[in-house]
Amino acid sequence: MIRILTDSTSDLSPARAAELGVEILPLSVQFGEESFADGGDITKEFYAKLAQAEALPTTAQIPPDTFTGAFRRMTQNGDQVLGIFISSAMSGTYQSARIAREVVGTSHIALVNSQTVTFALGLLVETACILRDQGLPLEALAAKVEQLSRRVR
């Protein structure tokens, strides 16, 4: 089975991700000394702080050890993983995933630098799910998503 992993910048809702069988790892939003998980810890209180803040929050990439744990868990029963992540020009998340793949040391993980973010990233993930469900093998699936990523605007 091919399992699909993406990050929270894909803006897929938890319900939609569950329907598709996609796992989402959150980027972190740093607000001063506080850290919030994108898509999880951000509440009305966060937005109230944002409205009164002098300095805007920043984001932080997903660290390699988070990917290492996810990859090990997702491949432990022989499953393969396709990871589709925020553009490497916008975040170090894709690089973290590459480092973690080397640590895990399996050929059952394919990674795609989406070259995009938000809706376009979510669209690539949705398309990957359709192609996965049509039976494309991992290598062909990754190649097709990479090809499509160059066409999404």
> Approximately how much helix is present in the residues?
40-55%
| Number of DSSP strand runs | 7
Outline: globular
Radius of gyration: 16 Å
Largest sheet: 4 strands, parallel
Low-confidence region ranges: none
How do the helices and strands follow one another from N- to C-terminus?
Answer: EHEEEHEHEHEHH
Strand content: 15-25%
Average per-residue pLDDT, rounded, comes to 92
Q: What's the N-to-C terminus distance?
A: 30 Å
Question: Which class best fits the helix and strand makeup?
Answer: alpha/beta
Helical segment tally? 6
Q: Which strand order spans the largest sheet, edge to edge or round the barrel?
A: 2-1-6-7
Please tell me about this protein's structure.
It is a single chain. By secondary structure, the chain is an alpha/beta fold. It contains six helices and seven strands. A four-stranded parallel beta sheet has the order 2-1-6-7, sandwiched between helices. Strands 4-3-5 form a three-stranded antiparallel beta sheet, with no helix packed on it. The protein is globular. The two termini are 30 Å apart. The mean pLDDT is 92.
